[in-house]
Write a structure and sequence with these properties.
The longest helix is centred in the first third of the chain and has 12 residues, at 17-28. The protein has six helices and seven strands. It has a seven-stranded mixed β-sheet, with no helix packed on it. 24% of the residues lie in helices and 33% in strands. The protein folds into two domains: 5-45, no CATH class; 57-176, Sandwich (Jelly Rolls). It is an alpha+beta fold. Strand 1 (57-64) and strand 2 (70-77) form a beta hairpin. The radius of gyration is 17 Å and the shape is globular.
């Protein structure tokens, strides 16, 4: 049996047949592949391939640590599917006290990877009660290893690699945005 990237996609298609259908449609129709059929053409057109996305809404996010400290970060919000799929890809640095928030409408098990992400990140899964439920620290750039939430998450916060350890962020700490 052949392994590698194609094998992983075949496994996912067996598990998620709707994704397989969507992928087949994209591959068979160049207009859809450019995003024109899904209302994302303008977003895709505003960003060249292999370039970081810009223009996301920025909001304050406060981490409430178990030692009583409250630290506020300026985070970009990836709200749409397209924004969430692109995330921190192609970025070469992160400014101090910044990050990216990926909010979802429903709590669900999640898994992120580092494909096309050029810098190490801390990936922080957030529970429905807005508490840290899992931290993947200093993730490996460009890795396709799935980093799972370990439960039903309502959001994901990405910070610069090592930031969680630097500030003492722990599972159970609160977040407010």
């Amino acid at each position: 049996m052949r392994t590698g990237h194609a094998g992983r996609w075949l496994w996912k298609w067996k598990r998620f047949p709707a994704e397989a259908l969507a992928a087949a449609l994209l591959l068979s129709n160049p207009a859809l592949a450019q995003g024109e059929g899904f209302g994302i053409g303008a977003a895709a057109a505003s960003r060249k391939a292999n370039q970081p996305q810009t223009g996301l809404k920025i909001i304050p996010l406060t981490l409430m640590l178990s030692d009583g400290r409250k630290l506020t970060y300026k985070v970009e919000v990836a709200e749409t599917d397209q924004q969430q799929q692109t995330g921190m890809m192609w970025r070469t640095h992160m400014a101090p006290k910044t990050g990216m928030l990926f909010p979802y409408t429903m709590a669900q098990p999640m898994a992120y990877w580092m494909r096309n992400t050029l810098i190490p990140l801390d990936i922080i899964y957030i529970s429905p009660d807005r508490r840290v439920m899992r931290i993947w620290a200093n993730t490996v750039p460009k890795s396709e290893k799935l980093l799972e939430s370990g439960g039903r998450a309502i959001a994901v916060l990405e910070l610069a690699g090592g930031e969680s350890a630097r500030i003492g962020l722990k599972v159970g700490d609160g977040l407010r945005w």
